Amino acid sequence: MDLDKLTTEKRNEKSMGLDEYSTREILQLMNAEDEVVPKAIAKNLASIESATKKIIDTFNKGGKLFYIGAGTSGRLGILDAVECVPTFGTDPKMVQGIIAGGETAMMKAVEGAEDDLQLAEKDLIGRGITAKDTVVGIAASGRTPYVIGGLRFARNLGANTVSLSCNRHAEISKEAEIVIEVEVGAEILTGSTRLKSGTAQKLVLNMLSTSAMIGIGKVYNNLMVDVQPSNEKLRVRAIRIIRQSTDCSEEIAQKAYKEAELNVKVAIVMILCSISAEEAKKRLLASHGFIKDTF
């Protein structure tokens, strides 16, 4: 394994005396280095767009989105996946994060898991992968065997494949239909890819999932109209979203929300179109969930 060729493993010339820096100097350097991340992502917007369109197509066909990765990359995939449920009201199976080593690896490294070329195949089969699905393989280094094996299996199965790495000409790029390589440069702490690389991966995953959810009708204007009211804050937000969408009173919003059986989107269509909950549901079904197509 030759790590010298990987940008993510190089030493950062700006931080050679890092252990002698004051706390303020460390923070200033980290902040300055983090500024390169959005610019590096901007160079990949065309690939991110292509990946998003594949994901939207996958969802429209009833398929699933899988994120696969090891270590920090795997944890970031799981984070993005689980947040889709409360934010967009998705079925937990619709977007899934898979980490090498399973749930144990969320808190503690599982020895050898990321080096197993066959393990991701077993994990994906266990999650019921089909040719309708999209698999996003995440690896800052771009050479993690677990991710390589998973992408290779998914591609041979006929599923859509996307690679997300932080090195150019990454190994995982060879296994994917769509390649995203966000080269953010050497970390201030050599090889610690939970820093800039992790930030880059998180931002790209935000873009993929959010833009895909917008693309299947889970957003009205800039509001989360499929939000799941699983706690008090979200219940308050649900009513607020109804009011912001319809410019109605608190009383009207509460009444419609109750009649809609706590479905924010149905309540909004009821108020905007002056129709019953049943009719609102029918219109939303006919419009594939897009509120603006129910008018």
TrEMBL record:
Active site: E83 (proton donor), E114
Pathway as given in its UniProt record: Amino-sugar metabolism; 1,6-anhydro-N-acetylmuramate degradation; Amino-sugar metabolism; N-acetylmuramate degradation; Cell wall biogenesis
InterPro entries: Etherase_MurQ, Glucokinase_regulatory_CS, MURQ/GCKR, SIS_dom, SIS_dom_sf
Gene3D superfamilies associated with the record: 1.10.8.1080, Glucose-6-phosphate isomerase like protein, domain 1 (3.40.50.10490)
UniProt KW keywords: Carbohydrate metabolism, Lyase
One Gene Ontology molecular-function label: ether hydrolase activity
The keyword Magnesium is assigned to this record: no
Catalytic activity: N-acetyl-D-muramate 6-phosphate + H2O = N-acetyl-D-glucosamine 6-phosphate + (R)-lactate
GO annotation terms (biological process): amino sugar catabolic process; N-acetylmuramic acid catabolic process; peptidoglycan turnover
Enzyme class, first EC level, given as a word: lyase
EC number of the protein: 4.2.1.126
SIS domain: residues covered: 55-218
Domain of life from the UniProt record: Bacteria
HAMAP family listed in its UniProt record: MurQ
Subunit structure: Homodimer.
Note: A lyase-type mechanism (elimination/hydration) is suggested for the cleavage of the lactyl ether bond of MurNAc 6-phosphate, with the formation of an alpha,beta-unsaturated aldehyde intermediate with (E)-stereochemistry, followed by the syn addition of water to give product.
Free-text function comment from the UniProt entry: Specifically catalyzes the cleavage of the D-lactyl ether substituent of MurNAc 6-phosphate, producing GlcNAc 6-phosphate and D-lactate.
UniProt similarity note: Belongs to the GCKR-like family. MurNAc-6-P etherase subfamily.
Name of the protein this chain belongs to: N-acetylmuramic acid 6-phosphate etherase
Naturally occurring in which organism (per UniProt): Kurthia sibirica
